[in-house]
Amino acid sequence: MTAQPITSPRPAADGAGEALLSVRDLTVTFGRGRKAFRAVDGVDFDVYPGQTVGLVGESGCGKSVTSLAIMGLLPGRGNTVGGRVTFAGEDLLSMPADQLRDRRGRDVAMIFQDPLSSLNPVVPLGVQVAEVIERHKGRNRSDAQQEAAAMLKKVGIPDPDRRLKEYPHQLSGGMRQRALIAMALACEPRLLIADEPTTALDVTIQAQILALLKELVSESGTALIMITHDLGVVAGLCDEVNVLYAGRIVERAQRHDLFATPRHPYTGGLLASIPRLHEERGRRLTPVPGSVSDNIPWEQGCAFAPRCANAVDVCRQQTPTLVPDRDAVGDDRLLRCHNPLTANPVDDTPTVEEDAR
């Protein structure tokens, strides 16, 4: 049985004490029997109104599967989802399908990683954006088209009336991503999940999209879950960060604490692999050795042990639990590690945040 992580309530940005989204012991298992694979393994976290929470890790660590499970978008067959996902006091996992469809788009919205595959290629953009407004706001087609044009303008798409008549392939990658953001925010959801929304974009457009998200979330008070493998994105956007590895959270901390004193060797490895502007030109980066597939089962020890320079014998013999880190700077910090990194602050880590701007 997976050990229950200890969670610590965080004050909401608007002063409310109740979590908007509460995820408890979330598990997602693909397949059955001996071939079963647990992609998400006992994940716990809270998101408060107005808060931006990051889910960080390499590809294959369970970030996107976690978001799809929260949204109820995993295939109906071939997987098993367990635990509780409570949104505004209601469990999304046990909610009837028709009620969950009403929630999606209206109260909880998602921006997907690939806008070209997320948009219907044979339907004009205006119809797709207006459809969300018609479905959840009850507007007629004419009013919905006007609101759609206003949303496209709000997210920075020029000449929105003309763009509404165009098809997704006629737009640039940045415009398609902005269109997805417009669709997600059209009904003013209380929670927005962004699944690596800048992965396929160039650096300049990435910065524009992140600035847009930060501005829109700040204006509306919407809570945001940012899923990314890019710690530069986290540095400029998130309030609290959850680092995932092999389906489990291995470290949780406030953004500044995490960058100043990474405690889990995996977090330290991710930070060490980021180039910094102030460092000597030509200096080699220090990547995390191996790949995500180089794991041992969590039931046998720490899954990261085969890749970890800090691993000791107990790491391969005993499963670490997520517990408060008493030695680190910052309150309510959680860590899953037998032999963590030193708690001494790193002098140059604030420059990571500068590089993300």
What would you say about this model in short?
The chain is of the alpha/beta class.
Mean pLDDT: 85
Poorly predicted ranges (pLDDT <50, ≥5 residues)? 1-16, 347-357
Q: What's the total count of β strands?
A: 12
Structural class: alpha/beta
Order of helices and strands: EEEHEEHEHHHHHEHEHEEHHEEH
Report the span from N to C terminus. 42 Å
Sheet bearing the most strands, described?
Answer: 8 strands, mixed
For the largest sheet, list the strands in their spatial order.
Answer: 6-7-8-3-9-10-12-11
Shape: globular
The fraction of residues assigned to DSSP E strands is 15-25%
Radius of gyration: 21 Å
| Helical content (DSSP H or I, runs of 4+) | 25-40%
* Number of distinct helices: 12
Question: Could you explain the architecture of this structure?
Answer:
It is globular and about 65 Å long. It is built from twelve helices and twelve strands. Helix 4 (125-137) packs across helix 5, helix 5 packs across helix 7 and helix 7 (173-185) runs parallel beside helix 8 (203-220). The chain has a domain at 117-188. It is α/β, with parallel strands linked by helices and 357 residues long.
Salient structural properties:
357 residues; eight-stranded mixed beta sheet; four-stranded antiparallel beta sheet; 19% strand; globular
Q: In terms of topology, how is this protein built?
A:
Elements: E1 21-30, E2 37-47, E3 52-56, H1 63-71, E4 79-87, E5 90-91, H2 97-103, E6 108-111, H3 115-118, H4 125-137, H5 141-154, H6 160-163, H7 173-185, E7 191-195, H8 203-220, E8 223-228, H9 231-237, E9 240-245, E10 248-254, H10 255-260, H11 265-272, E11 323-324, E12 334-335, H12 350-356
Parallel strand pairs: 3-8, 3-9, 6-7, 7-8
Antiparallel strand pairs: 1-2, 1-4, 4-5, 9-10, 10-12, 11-12
Helix pairs in contact: 4-5, 4-7, 5-7, 7-8, 9-12
